[in-house]
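Batch job 17 of 40 flagged for manual review because the log was empty.
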Amino acid sequence: MANNGEAQRWPLLDSFITYYDFGPAWEPGQPSVYFQSQLHGNEAAGTAVLRELVNALRTLPAESICGAIRIVPRANPFAWQSYVQTRQGTYDLTTGENWNRIYDWSALREEAETQWKGMSEDDAWKLMRRLVAQRREASYDLLDQLRYSLFELASGYAYIIDVHTPDNGIEHLYCSRYSETVPHFGVPNVLEFGDPQGNTFDEGYLRLIQQAEGHLGHSQAITLEIKNRLALHNDQVEDWVERILNELRHRRILQDVEDVEMPRPAYVGSYVSCIGRVTGIVVYHRRPGEFVKAGDVVGELIPFDMEDAPQQVTAPVSGILLNMRDQTIVPSGGWVVRMLHPHSTQASTSVAG
């Protein structure tokens, strides 16, 4: 039976996660995509976009949705509550843990791999969900409840899209390695992190898939950074909804119109930070989105002693300025500017569905 986007609630301690399913029920090997946003409470632009995506999908004929789509506009109600009350939504205030650094599934994989032999992909995922549910039900820890719940909601989908919002900066995409199989939503700047090593939502999930060696099929897990945390306008929301719909059409998950041509990424490269050597007030000389050369001055730090000379902050490599601090005081050793250092352009790369 096809899903029609009815609001559903996943219980989470004294709160809940609202999610929406569209299209046919999930099946292994079939087209499917999972979206979530606002893992960090202070990054709400994605929530507005995914809410409108839900509304847009509800207007489409049911037969035009050919793949399973799950949308979680607000993945972390705890971070939302924290930000509303304290203006801090990136970390759990009790433990100091970043809400997006808790997704290490190595222990889960080690238990599951003793039972995978001879299982179909469908049965392997059922086993994973059962093991995760057992852990969730046995724990009253807030972080465990969140990460296990999100794993159960996302498990098995072919495309995992974790939507975030950068500091004062421009849109970009994180992926392991860019290829034509990676959804990019027309984003011009793509950052590659290589083999997944961290415990972010996308890297933790992708590392599990890779280490399962085919038992859990194949998935793409990426982070989509949409614009910045400044004022959000309706035309920006509408533009992002249309871009997401076009990517879904391109991937044959939607078939309400003819296939659309997706703009190619302009730059693919690695992540580089410009670091400050003193604590000071940052005054920027350049803006997000500008291309700078190695050695160019991108800003200066005014130290505590007003008689001391400001410290110039220079670009360590040539590249695109992705984002800058949304606070004016930078601690010594902290990043001042984050950059994309391109190792290739995609001008001649065809991005096929």
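Reviewer: the log was empty due to a logging misconfiguration, but the result itself is present. Residues 180 and 351 are 5 Å apart (CA to CA). Unflagging and moving on to job 18.
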